[in-house]
């Protein structure tokens, strides 16, 4: 049987930080209010487009894998905030990398986009259609944020992560997954003002307003991720005791805690980095996985469960198996251009540009 082994991993976090105190300078909020409700302390704001963040994350994943860009057969880019609708953003990552042998595809399932991209690439490797792939989860949510809306402005940040996958005969990578969607509830989490639906109207594309029904989203998120986890465990005939680590989508600490209780998983088996980055949508789960590896949380033989949910309302759960301990000290020398503004200054610029 062919598996899609995870041979490389990387992330790219914009250097500019937006703290809770920064948010309090233009929203009616404070650090205690945000932290107690979300678990978030700060998030990153990007000074470059999303494909540029993705490029650096991919360079790092290739460095860890010891591969060149010409070894990549396909790039699958998961995001909600692509540079352009056409051409696709994966093609720009190909150009920036010099990955001229790769096919290119964009995937948008909101916050689950990175994980759905993992499913797409894994399936294509298992089928024999390709031998290797870079999968990406990346967002620049700050550009489409409704910064006057406290309900959403405190939650989201920017970032990127990538994995390099390669065909292997050894049991490794995704060994089971479950994907789904609560389509009837799609309007409870929606970014309005993007897409051709809003073209040719009295509206400037990119000036967004958000639908965000927090309590309804909370219930659907926990239910969807729990359902996905149960289905994935059932496919493997696993019990909760077979899970070595849970790396969940980091949308809200209360959601993570509720899911952990449903899974009967102790807190020391749940990886959390929400306090540093907030919710980076498609980048969130993959950045968490990369940091779990970097922080030496994953060992040889471990099974890592990755549940996620997003607008749509899409949901998923992937079980990853690591037949070897993931470790590498390799680093890329490709870096982002220097950012000369703070996170608050970047946000103020976005707000000003919409007036």
- Count of DSSP H/I helices: 11
The CATH H-level superfamily of the largest domain is Thiolase/Chalcone synthase
Overall residue-averaged pLDDT value: 96
Helix content range of the residues, please?
25-40%
Beta-strand portion reads 15-25%
CATH uppermost class of the largest domain: Alpha Beta
Notes on the structure:
The termini are far apart. α3 (50-65) packs across α4 and α7 (214-236) packs parallel to α8. 33% of the residues lie in helices and 23% in strands. It contains eleven helices and 13 strands. A hairpin with a 3-residue loop joins β12 (302-310) and β13 (314-322). It has helices spanning 20-23, 31-38, 50-65, 89-97, 113-127, 150-153, 214-236, 253-263, 274-277, 284-294, 343-353, and strands at 3-12, 16-19, 42-45, 74-78, 103-107, 132-139, 159-168, 173-181, 189-192, 209-212, 245-246, 302-310, 314-322. The chain folds into two domains: 3-170 and 335-353, Peroxisomal Thiolase, Chain A, domain 1 (3-Layer(aba) Sandwich); 175-322, Peroxisomal Thiolase, Chain A, domain 1 (3-Layer(aba) Sandwich). It is an alpha/beta fold. The strands form four sheets. It has a five-stranded mixed β-sheet with strand order 1-7-6-4-5, with helices on both faces. Strands 8-13-12-11 form a four-stranded mixed β-sheet, sandwiched between helices. The protein has a two-stranded antiparallel sheet with strand order 2-3. The mean pLDDT is 96.
Which keywords apply here?
about 350 residues, alpha/beta, Peroxisomal Thiolase, Chain A, domain 1, 2 domains, 11 helices, globular, fatty acid metabolism, fatty acid biosynthesis, Thiolase-like, ACP_syn_III_N, transferase
């Amino acid at each position: 049987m062919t598996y899609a082994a995870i041979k490389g991993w990387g992330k790219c976090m914009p250097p500019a930080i937006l703290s809770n105190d920064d948010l309090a300078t233009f929203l009616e909020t404070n650090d205690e209010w945000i932290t107690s409700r979300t678990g978030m302390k700060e998030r990153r704001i990007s000074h470059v487009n999303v494909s540029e963040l993705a490029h650096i994350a991919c360079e790092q994943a290739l460095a860890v894998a010891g591969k060149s860009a010409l070894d990549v057969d396909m790039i699958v880019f998961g995001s909600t905030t692509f540079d352009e609708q056409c051409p696709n953003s994966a093609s720009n990552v190909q150009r920036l990398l010099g990955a001229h042998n790769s096919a290119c595809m964009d995937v948008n399932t909101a916050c689950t986009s990175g994980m759905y991209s993992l499913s797409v690439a894994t399936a294509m490797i298992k089928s024999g259609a390709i031998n290797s792939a870079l999968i990406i989860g990346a967002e620049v949510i700050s550009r489409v944020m409704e910064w006057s809306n406290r309900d959403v402005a405190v939650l989201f940040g920017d970032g990127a992560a990538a994995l390099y996958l390669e065909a292997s005969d050894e049991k490794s990578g995704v060994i089971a997954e479950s994907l789904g969607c609560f389509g009837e509830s799609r309007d409870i989490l929606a970014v309005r003002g993007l897409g051709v639906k809003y073209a040719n109207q009295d509206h400037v594309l990119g000036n967004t307003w958000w639908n965000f029904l927090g309590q309804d989203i909370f219930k659907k998120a926990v239910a969807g991720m729990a359902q996905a986890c149960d289905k994935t465990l059932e496919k493997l005939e696993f019990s909760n005791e077979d899970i070595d680590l849970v790396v969940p989508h980091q949308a809200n600490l209360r959601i993570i805690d509720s899911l952990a209780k449903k899974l009967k998983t102790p807190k020391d088996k749940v990886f959390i980095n929400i306090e540093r980055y907030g919710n980076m949508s498609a980048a969130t789960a993959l950045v968490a996985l990369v940091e779990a590896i970097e922080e030496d949380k994953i060992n040889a033989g471990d099974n890592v469960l990755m549940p996620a949910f997003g607008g749509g309302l899409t949901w998923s759960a992937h079980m990853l198996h690591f037949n070897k301990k993931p470790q590498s000290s390799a680093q890329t020398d490709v870096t982002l251009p220097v950012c000369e503004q703070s996170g608050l200054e970047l946000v103020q610029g976005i707000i000003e540009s919409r007036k």
